[in-house]
Amino acid sequence: MSIVERLRAVAEERYHHRHPFNLRMHAGELDKEEIQRWILNRFHYQRHIPIKDALILAKLETPELRRMWIRRIQDHDGTGPDQGGLERWLRLGEAAGLDRDLLLSGEDVLPGVRLAVEGYVNFCRLRSPLEAVASSLTEMFAPNLMRTRIGAFEEHYSWLDAAGLEYFQSRVSQGERDSKEALDLVVRWTRDERDAELALASLAFKCDVLWSLLDAVDHAGSHVDHAGARPAERSAR
Ligand SMILES: O=C(O)c1cc(C(=O)O)c2c(n1)C(=O)C(=O)c1cc(C(=O)O)[nH]c1-2
């Protein structure tokens, strides 16, 4: 099997398109509170993407590579106020009834989500360029997931204003381009079996990050919170 086929096989097996929370989302089985919890917690992931990309940028040794990678930071941060992916995610939150100040405050982010995101940022901080870039290759599978998600929201969650889905629409083409660029780099930098194994392990790790994040969101509904109250009691307080 080629390195590309081996990478695809890892993601096919471990990517979060198979996670029970995503399956329930696509089947229209999540309630409003669960959708809101997912959006709020995923904002914590989103706001760390440009930070991990800045850490990767600092490892790239040529102007060509840095010019390519810096665009990812601009995609999320925008090139001015009120632009970019983070702004679009805040609008998704507003369309779901979440105040942007709540998302920006970072309050209510689940402990497991904080750990998963911290794990991903530190991985990109500490590992080689090959490993850090390979860990972004979950994006090979993200565009299809976005298409499924847009369809699911339109069909099942029409209470959420469709304008809020712009984030996902913009990520289809961005994810296709980003994953193609990253895959080309990983193929170019993989010279032997040791490199191949590092790349595969990095992609597996990143799949685990995304899986753990959804585990935390999924289980939050049935666990006691920091103050020892179950969610129902908490919202009644
Ligand atoms: O909603 C998703 O399922 C999903 C998955 C992924 C991914 O597969 O890593 C990313 C995103 N969204 C996303 O919006 C995004 O900007 C992004 C950047 C990256 C990355 O690792 O560089 N992954 C993802």
From TrEMBL:
Name by which UniProt lists this protein: Pyrroloquinoline-quinone synthase
GO process annotations (BP): pyrroloquinoline quinone biosynthetic process
Keyword Oxidoreductase appears in the UniProt entry: yes
SUPFAM superfamilies in alphabetical order: Heme oxygenase-like
Source species: Actinomadura barringtoniae
This protein's UniProt keywords: Oxidoreductase, PQQ biosynthesis
Keyword Repressor applies: no
InterPro entries in alphabetical order: Haem_Oase-like_multi-hlx, PqqC, PqqC-like, Thiaminase-2/PQQC
Function of the molecule: Ring cyclization and eight-electron oxidation of 3a-(2-amino-2-carboxyethyl)-4,5-dioxo-4,5,6,7,8,9-hexahydroquinoline-7,9-dicarboxylic-acid to PQQ.
